[in-house]
Amino acid sequence: MASTLTNLRVFFFTLLLLASPLLQVGRCQSESDAEVAETVEEATDLGIVGEDALDFDDGSFSPAPGVETAAVFHKNSARLVLAGEEAVVLVGITNPGGQEITVFAIKASVHLPFDHRMLVQNLTAQAFNNATVPGHAQSTFPYYFAVSKYLQPGTFDLVGTIIYEIDQHPYQSVFYNGTIEVVESGGFLSMESVFLVTLGIALLVLLGLWVHGQIQNLSKKTKRTSKVESGTATRDASLDEWLQGTAYTQSDSKKLKKKKN
C-alpha cells in the first residue's frame, strides 16, 4: 500500500511539472504588456513614422563591419504570436565605432521553417526619422508586427532586418532568424481548457490506481484464509479390487467374522 501511495504522489507531481509551462506562458504574456509599455515610453523620441514613409523592399545591403544586433521577445520566451494581433520584439544594435549610426527602418518576413524560399508573409516595415546610435554605444528599438489572422497556427520562421546608415553608406543586418509559434487568438483559453481536461483525466487515473490497490489488498487477505472441507470418507472401488487376496483383505474378513460371532 505504501508503494502504491508513493507511485501516486510521483505521478501527480509529474503532471504538475508538465502542466506548469502552460500556466507560465499565459502569465508571461500578460506581464509582457506592462514591460513593453515602459519600453515604448522610453522610445518616444525615435520618431516612428510607419510603413508608408519609405520603401526598403528594393534595397539589399551588407552588414556594417563590427555592428552587432540582437532580438528579445521580452517576457515571451516561447515566442508565441497571436494571429491577427500586434506583437513586439525589442531590437538591440551595438555601435563599436566612433561614427554615429542612423537607423532608417526595421522590417521582417515570415517563411516556412523547412524552406526559406517559401515566403508566407511580408510584415509591416517600420520606419524612423530621427533614430540614432552614438559611437561606442548601444540602443534598443521596439518593432511592432502582426501576422495575418488567416494564417494557420503552427511553427514558422521569422527573419527580421534592421536598415541603417553610417557616414552616408547604407547597411542592413539580420537581427533575428529563428522560429515563432503562431497561435489562434484566444489560444491561452484553449490551453487552459486542455490543462483542465488533462487534470481531470489524471484524477480519474489516480482514483483507478487507488481502487486497484484496494482490490489487490482484499485478494491477498482472501488467499490467506484456508478453506475447510467436511464429509464422509469413501473407498475407491478400484483400490478394493487391487487389494483382493492380500493380507489387508484377509485381516478385514477376520474382523467381520469376529463381529458376527
Give the ordered list of helices and strands. HEEEEEEEEEEHHH
Helix content: 25-40%
**Class based on secondary structure composition and strand pairing:** alpha+beta
How far apart the termini lie comes to 69 Å
Average pLDDT reading = 75
Number of strands: 10
* Rg from alpha-carbon coordinates: 40 Å
Q: Which outline best applies?
A: elongated
Membrane topology: Single-pass type I membrane protein
Subunit structure: Heterotetramer of TRAP-alpha, TRAP-beta, TRAP-delta and TRAP-gamma.
InterPro entries: TRAP_alpha (IPR005595)
Keywords: Calcium, Endoplasmic reticulum, Membrane, Signal, Transmembrane, Transmembrane helix
Layout: helices, strands, pairs:
Elements (H helix, E strand, L loop, with lengths): L1 H41 L5 E3 L17 E5 L7 E3 L4 E9 L5 E12 L2 E8 L3 E8 L3 E9 L8 E13 L2 E15 L3 H38 L12 H6 L4 H14 L1
Parallel strand pairs: 3-10
Antiparallel strand pairs: 1-7, 2-4, 4-8, 5-6, 5-7, 5-9, 9-10
Helix pairs in contact: 1-2
Give a description of the structure.
The chain has 261 residues and is α+β, with helices and mostly antiparallel strands. The protein contains four helices and ten strands. The strands form two sheets. Strands 1, 3, 5, 6, 7, 9 and 10 form a seven-stranded mixed beta sheet that branches. A three-stranded antiparallel beta sheet has the order 2-4-8, covered by helices on one side. Strand 5 and strand 6 form a beta hairpin. The longest helix is centred in the first third of the chain and has 41 residues. 16% of the residues are buried. About 11% of the residues have low confidence.
